[in-house]
Structures are given as structure tokens and as C-alpha cells.
Amino acid sequence: MSILIDQTKRVLVQGITGREGRARARLMKEYGTQVVAGVTPGKGNQEVDGVPVFDTIREAWENVGEIDISVLFIPAPIVKSAALEAIDAGIKLLVIVPDRVPIYDVLEIAEAAQEAGAQFVGPNTLGVLSPGKAVLGMIGGRAASARAWFITGPVGITSRSGGITSSMAYYLAQEGIGATTLVHVGGDVVVGLPHPEVIKLFENDPETKAVVMFGEIGGGQEEQVADLVEAGEVTKPIIAFIGGKAAKSGTRFSHAGAIIEGGRGTYEGKVNRLREVGVTIVEAFGELPQATKAVLREHGIMK
Amino acid sequence: MARLHEYQGKALLSEKKINIPQGGPASSPNEAKKIAEEIDGPVVIKGQAWLTGRAALGAIRFAETPPEASEATAAILGTKIKGISIDTVLVEEKLDIEREFYAGIIIDDVSKAPMVIFSRVGGSGIEEIAQEHPEALARAVIDIRTGLLDYQARDLVRQVGIHGKLQLGLGTLLTRLYSVARQYDARSAEINPIALTSDGKLFAADCRIAVDDNAVYRHPELGIEIAREFDRPPTPLEKVAWQVEKNDYRGTFYFIQLEEDFKKGDGVIGFHGAGGGGSMMSMDAILNRGYKLANFVDTSGNPPASKVYRAAQIILAQEGIDGYFASGSGVASQEQFHSARGLVKAFMEVPLTVPAVIRLGGNAEERAIAILERAQGKIPSPVEGYGKDDTPEFCAERLDSLIKAGMAPMGEAIGLKYPQAKEPYAFETVSGGTVTLDHSACKECVSKICIETCVPGILVLENDLPVLKISDEEAKKGGCIECLACQIECYFEGNQGGYVDLPLPELQKG
User: Whole-number mean pLDDT of chain B?
Assistant: First the structure.
């Protein structure tokens, strides 16, 4: 199995007639994603690469039937409206690719999603990919590359950096370690499905046997993962690398962040907290594949 | 987070009826004197800089009379504290403070909501107070749909033991602070201290507001020059870079200078990353070898070749760099030959006179590396291209070796200039550029390489000459994606008749 996406999910592309939307819809299809419809307000009644385009999501739904997921390729200022439309139409998973979405817009989307029982990945995400099955967003770029780079296997991959999502999967695959699903949680401070949420999904996926996580300084996602492990809600082994060790801590402008975060957010804080609960921490990125291999062997997941 | 100065923040608070001390900003001793005369009493003069702890740094002074205010202002203006030159002071009535509180609004990533924090103790050292006396603080998550409601705010104040009229006043102030934060898309907004004066009024004695970079476009009235977090005013090059980013929504271009006063031989490297995580690792790889970084640059999110070209030009404008290091995540989803073409154009034209190591792993990396290698003979200094199977550490090691080899530029360090086209066929591009195909050269061209390599495929042969197959207008609206094939491919595989002019007027001026 995999999480969030596979070849059975019916996918809508919002902004399908734009530069990115058009290109990515084609690439998603080529990799195996069922792209059943596209929406661009004012540009309905045409086809993009054989995908029917509608003016609104309700119209798309009425014409093509149920839609599981919407992938948004639209300019940041109108992301909120597009996301609310998707949630309102009953779509339960959104992948918000664009960056530069105003943070209060993200908070409004989060509120609406929670109320409707919907989830969203991003914003500022490269997307989600289940090797050999389907992709949402732009991970892997060309389908041929994605096929060559990523293989199926027992590891769930979650990352706060888009590029590193692909890198980790690629370098692991070079060592023969495949993945169930790759998730780029998004590069912003507030994201719909942060590491702890993604890892809970991996915990419930029978085929995922271990999780590889790329964390970063700032925010509280990694500490929350440690809390989950400590509480016994996550039992699968986790191998993590935390980026930003050498980053200069900047002059703080406001006190509020420091008050809320306390010791959270720093490299040391994250590493220590994760180690404390038994997460395997890799200090050099290049050692990630070997460390993962060792953990998989130790747990009898890999020979 | 784009930071506002204290006087700017106070103006916003005042709009929402939060009391601020009487006064205003001044940029000369004379102006300060006039404001002090209007106040007609003791004043405080506060240098405007994005720093905490200004008093200890000498940027806050008191004056009893207008002439003293003038003197104090003269003493503060023009001084540099922690690298920031102060060009404005805030002249305000001196409050008769009886008690201080703290209030802040911040976005909490865990609850995905704004959060309000109130402390019954305010002033300097608030972070320590939070650590040592958690009972002095109360916090609450705010519902984004309803905002901070009056009774919620009052209850927050009650939780730290404040009652009666004061509770009412502070509660109202909190709801007003939230409405400022919400209206101006503040990532954080805090008043520290809230001053209770001896006559029982509440004032915002100091405030810090930082606006969400992504929402700056909604607030032209704030006059924010660059929607980026800086702890100092932007440098001239940062301003140039911001113009590039602001005028071109395709992909991301982030530029921040880390070192300014350096010269050749100081071991400072021009850094060009792609993607946050990979950039961090790549920077570490350079820093681990004892070098410093002149700048941080990120061009990612599938930027066009033109944007990468402009980024490279700005990096190369830092004249004292000893090397150029480009390295990102290593397995990029974007097609890397776009970046390669942008780099080659900049390296040929500026030109590059220090060694460069370019790690362009990802989609179409073989093509990207071939583009770099093919251009070597036309670039004065050595350029090495690597892909996803070469680590940042290895690439940093290569750059280190090239720099240590200390080779003088191999070719003449004169940038490539295109001659005036004899038979120009030209059209404009989306970012203010112009593509010129010199049909006198195209006539003699055998390969007509521009036709097949043009990424959007907008060129067609007409009478054996390349022309647009879309209208000029469509090309300008983004039909031409500025992939630079009609210059770079034409230069090496064609008859050198294609040129893409991508002006960066602010850079030339500087």
C-alpha cells in the first residue's frame, strides 16, 4: 500500500490551463495518476491533453463523477479562494503546490478543511509520490525520470525540503531501499500535513515498515514527532536528518516566538528530543542510506 | 517577515484606537525640536532600528526641553548600532509609568492559528520572565473566523490575576491589537511594554510588528521596500535582486548578502543554491572547508533560464569572490538545462573570472552538464559541471582544489558582446527582455538549431529564416518562456545570430 495517493484516486487539477498546470497535468498522467478533470474559471469547455476543463469544481464533479483529490497550480493570491472551493465541493485531499501563499489565508484554509474533514498538503510543496503508482504535484519532474529514480519498498519518506524529498528517495533507491510514498510536507511555517500527521499515516499503512524524515530547524514539527513516539502512537522505526546545523541564529525581532517555542526549534533541541525517544539521527546526509539499511536489518525488514 | 519600525507600527495601533504617546518621527534635530515644542514637556527620543535592547546601546535618550531634544537627536542620528545606521528618531512625550504589561500576537504552527499571549509583567527581559514565571503569562489560540472576542481577551487577562476596570481596558487593547495584526497580515505583533500611567490610562509604549512577506503586496500603504526579513536595511544588490523577483513570478529567487567588505583572496565564495534543504547542505560543505559565503541565493521552483541568468549576474557583481558554487538538492524535479543556459549566458557575458563548480543534479542533468562543458572554451575561468551522483562535499572539494590551483583566467576576461544585428528580427519577452534574431546570420546558418531547441516551440522557418509562429503579443505575454535556446544553442551549434537582451538596469546603474 501507500498513503495519500495511488493509481485508483481520481484527481482534479485546478489551474490546468496555466503554464505549470498544463505541463504538470500531463506529467502526472504519464506517471499513472488518474487526472479526471481540470478547472480554470472562465476557461471551461475545452480539453487539455484529453482532460476535460470546467469553470467550477461543482461542474466538474457533476460531469465526471466523484473527485478524491485536487492539485492546485494557481497564483498564490487566489489560492485561498480555490482551496475553499475544493473543500466546499467535498474534495477530501488538496495538494497546494504554489509558494508565497499569505499565512492568514493558510489559516483560513486549515480551519475550513478541519471543519469539512478534509486534509491538505502544502502550501509550497513539491507534492506526493507513490513509486510505481501515481504522483501529485511535481515530484520527479518527467515520468521517465521518476520511474528511474524511485522504487517501491518498505520506507515512508517525509521531508520539509522539496529537493531533498527526491534526493533521499533516489539515494536510498541506489542502495536498494524502496519507498511506499514520498511526501514533501511543504516549505512554509504552517502546512496542512506536517511531519507528525504524515508519520501517523505511515504508522497505519501496513506496507510501510520504517520512516525516513528530513527535518529542519524552526517550528515544532520534529518535536511533535518525538511526542508521538514517546506516547506510543508511532511504533515504527524512524531515521532522521535535521538540516540547518550551521545556520546562524538570526537576531530575534520579536519575543513572542521565543516565548511560544521555549527551547523548541533549534538544531540541538530537535536532535536531543528525537534521540531521547529512540529515533536514529544521522549527522551527515550522505550516511542516510547506510543508516537506514542498518535500521531495516536490525528490525528484520531487510536482509 | 518584513519588519516595521516602531513609529510605523504605532501609527497602525493608533488607527485602531490603541493609545500611543504623543509625538512623531523626526529625521533632523530641528524637526525633533519642533515636535518637542508641541509636546511641551519632557520627551524621550528613540532611534528607529529593528533591534531589541536599544536603551543599552545608547539609541534611547531623554530630554527635558526642546533644545535638549535637538541635542539628543543629533547624538543619535547617523550613529551605527549593530551595523544599522539610524536615520530616524521617534520623539514622544515621556510617560509617567506606574506598571508595565506585555501583549503579543503570533502565528502558531502547531495549532495552525493565531495565538495571543499576555503577561502581567512587561518590559525588558520578557523572555526570561516567561521561562522563570510561567504563571505570569496566559495564552490562547484565536479562531481565525471570529477573531479574538472581547470576553476571550478579558478572560485571558483574568487568568493572570487582573480584575476590574484594568481587566476591561487590557481586554479591549488585546482585541484591538489582534485586529491590527489581522488587517495588516502580521506574522507577529507585540506591544512591550503596555504602560499603565499614573492617571490610569493604557499606552503602547513600544511595539514590534512584522508583516508576512507573502502578504506585503496587499499593503502598498505600508511602503515596504522589500518583502523579506532583514535585520538591517537592504543592500543595493539586494534591492536589485528584489526587483527581479518582484517582476517575475516564475520560480523563486532569493538573494541575501552575508559578507560585504571583502576582496579577492579572502576566501569568500559566491553561492548559488536551489531549494532550501539542499542549499543548506551545500553551504555547510563550503563552510566546512574554511571558506566564507558572500551571499545566499536560491533559484528554485522551476525558474526560467532568464531568472537564473539574472541571479548569476547579481552574484558575479560581488567583485571580491574567489569562487562560484552552485549546488542544490541534487535530484531536482525541474529540468536543469534551463539553469545551465542561464549560467552559461552570465558566465560568458559578465564574464566569470573565478573557478566555478556547478552541481545540477536532477532532470535532464546530462544535458545541463554538456551545456556547461561545451561553453568552457568561451568562459575565462574553469567551470565544472556535476550531477546527482556527486555529493555537495565532493563538489566543494573540487572548488577548493580549483581555487588552490590558483589559475589565472584562461581566456581574456572580456565579456561577450554581440554586434549590432544587420537584419534584426526582434520580439519582446515577458520579463522586459528582447529576443533578436539576426536574419543576415540565420541565412547562412546550416543547423537552424533554434527551431528544434526552442522549449515552447514558438519558432518556425519561413523562407528558411526563423520567425515566430505566434503573435508578438502572445510571445510577450509569456509564450516565449525565455529558455535562452535561441541564444545559447545558436551560439554553439548555429551561426551566432540569436541574442536575448535581458536588462537589469538597476544593476548597471549601481
Answer: 92
| CA dist., res. B214 & res. B204, Å (int) | 27
pLDDT of residue A260: 57
Bond into B193 cis (ω within 30)? yes
CB < 8 Å to B146, chain A: none
* A246 pLDDT tier (thresholds 50, 70, 90): low
Domains of chain A as residue ranges with CATH: 10-121 (3.40.50.720), 127-298 (3.40.50.261)
Same domain for B499 and B383, yes or no, is: no
Asked whether the predicted pLDDT for residue B406 surpasses 90, the reply is: no
Average pLDDT, integer, range B4-21: 97
Q: Contacts of residue B277 in chain A, CB cutoff 8 Å? A: 159-164, 214, 216, 243
Q: Is B57 on the interface with A (CB under 8 A)?
A: no
Query: How close B101 gets to chain A, by Cα (Å)?
Result: 13
Residues in chain A with CB shorter than 8 Å from the CB of B50 are 251, 253
* B100 touches B195 (CB < 8 A): yes
Indicate whether B57 belongs to any domain: yes
Among A103, A187, A253, whose Cβ lies nearest the Cβ of B208?
Answer: A253
Whether B456 has its CB under 8 Å from any CB of chain A: the answer is: no
Kindly report the pTM of this predicted structure. Answer: 0.90
CATH number, domain at B216? Answer: 3.30.470.20
Query: For residue range B418-433, what is the model confidence (pLDDT) as tens digits?
Result: 889 999 999 999 999 9
Residue B410 pLDDT exceeds 70 = no
Tell me how close the Cα of A282 comes to any Cα of chain B, in angstroms: 13
Of B143, B231, B334, the CB nearest to A250: B231
Q: B333–A139: do the CB atoms touch at under 8 Å? A: yes
Distance CA A290, CA B358 (A): 26
The runs of H, that is alpha helices, within B317-410 are: 337-349, 365-374, 392-405
Interface touch B277/A20, C-beta < 8 Å? no
Q: Judge contact between A52 and A63, C-beta under 8 A.
A: yes
* Residues in chain B within 8 Å Cβ distance of A139: 333
Contact of B335 with chain A, judged by CB distance below 8 Å, is answered with yes
ipTM of the complex: 0.91
- What confidence tens digit (pLDDT) does each residue in A247-284 have? 554 434 456 555 555 556 788 889 999 999 999 999 88
Distance, in angstroms, between A63 CA and closest chain B CA? Answer: 31
B415 or A122, higher pLDDT: A122
Question: What pLDDT is recorded for position A268?
Answer: 87
Q: Is A58 exposed, middle or buried (0-12, 13-18, 19+ CB in 10 A)?
A: middle
Beta strands in chain A (DSSP E): 10-14, 34-39, 46-48, 51-54, 69-72, 93-96, 119-121, 127-130, 134-137, 152-159, 179-184, 210-216, 238-243, 280-281
Model confidence pLDDT, tens digit, residues A153-181: 999 999 998 888 999 999 999 999 999 99
The residues of A carrying an active-site annotation are 255
Helix or strand run (H / E) with residue B139 = strand B137-141
| Judgement on whether residues B86 and B105 belong to the same structural domain of the protein | no
